[in-house]
């Protein structure tokens, strides 16, 4: 555990940052573990990113999370990067070393896999074909996590096919690109369906997909967490599929960051989840 001869500091660097639940989450864990410190929102414009990151050691920060629009640009400032961040092509966390060096990592794929395991401990990535919709930053993390866990076939389907093809090139097997027009047919023998598009998020139209072909045994997950139950998850639940929303991904990606900064691996307790759910409304 980090020494308490100084006040512990971490934060979220991005722009905007005020909407984030990360301060609530990390400050809950700091209090839970009796650690004196604070996790703060750090509103940093792109032109200030390099200076802000380089200032972290001098200010005594243990590190920070990185969010939009800095997830890719911050990588160039790091002294070292973990293989997962390199693979995903984006980072969401900085760890300040004892020598003041900056290490970049990406815990989103880990958070996604943990979110499934905490709900369904027997879940296996290699149970059958996984259909992933979307090819943005969220998809890159989810696909990396699934591939790491041994998924044998990931059918990647995006409205803009070229973006999915970029991921297939970067990741290689087991990613297979399928046309957006064929998304319903691709569900036929799927063991899992994951939505990583922004469709179904509050303020956006529902995801346009017919679930008729999807086996009832398939697990349906959506990385969106506002609303807690997207129209996709509601439709899947009504027809009898197991479902997981995106809140667990958000909560679980934070755990290894907290451990790296402060020396304790925190847990996602029912109380913590309820507090964040109440905040989301
Ligand atoms: N739970 C978590 O911790 C977590 C983490 C990351 C992201 N998320 C959520 O995941 C969602 C996506 O985030 P992101 O960072 O991956 O965003 P992104 O990089 O902007 O990607 C957006 C994705 O949505 C697709 N899309 C947008 N409008 C569409 C439409 N009308 N029809 C079909 N597809 C459409 C895009 O397809 P095109 O390529 O064709 O534009 C793209 O694949 C957001 O709701 C975000 O909040 C959650």
Structural notes for this entry:
The protein is α/β, with parallel strands linked by helices and 281 residues long. The chain has 2 domains: 8-106, Rossmann fold (3-Layer(aba) Sandwich), CATH 3.40.50.10860; 109-247, Rossmann fold, CATH 3.40.50. The protein is built from 9 helices and 12 strands. The protein has helices at 22-32, 49-59, 83-88, 108-119, 137-148, 161-171, 231-239, 247-262, 270-280, and strands spanning 8-14, 37-43, 63-66, 80-81, 93-96, 102-105, 130-133, 154-157, 175-178, 192-195, 219-222, 242-244. The strands form 2 sheets. The protein has a 6-stranded mixed β-sheet with strand order 2-1-3-5-6-4. It has a 6-stranded parallel β-sheet with strand order 9-8-7-10-11-12, sandwiched between helices. α4 crosses α8 (247-262). It is globular, with a radius of gyration of 19 Å. The chain starts with 7 loop residues before the first strand and ends with a helix. The structure holds NADP nicotinamide-adenine-dinucleotide phosphate. Residues 108, 134-139, 158-160, 163, 196-199, 201, 223-225, 246, 249-250 line the site of NADP nicotinamide-adenine-dinucleotide phosphate.
Task: Please specify the SSE layout and strand pairing.
Elements: E1 8-14, H1 22-32, E2 37-43, H2 49-59, E3 63-66, E4 80-81, H3 83-88, E5 93-96, E6 102-105, H4 108-119, E7 130-133, H5 137-148, E8 154-157, H6 161-171, E9 175-178, E10 192-195, E11 219-222, H7 231-239, E12 242-244, H8 247-262, H9 270-280
Parallel strand pairs: 1-2, 1-3, 4-6, 7-8, 7-10, 8-9, 10-11, 11-12
Antiparallel strand pairs: 3-5, 5-6
Helix pairs in contact: 4-5, 4-8
The site of NADP nicotinamide-adenine-dinucleotide phosphate has 22 residues, from helix 5 and helix 8.
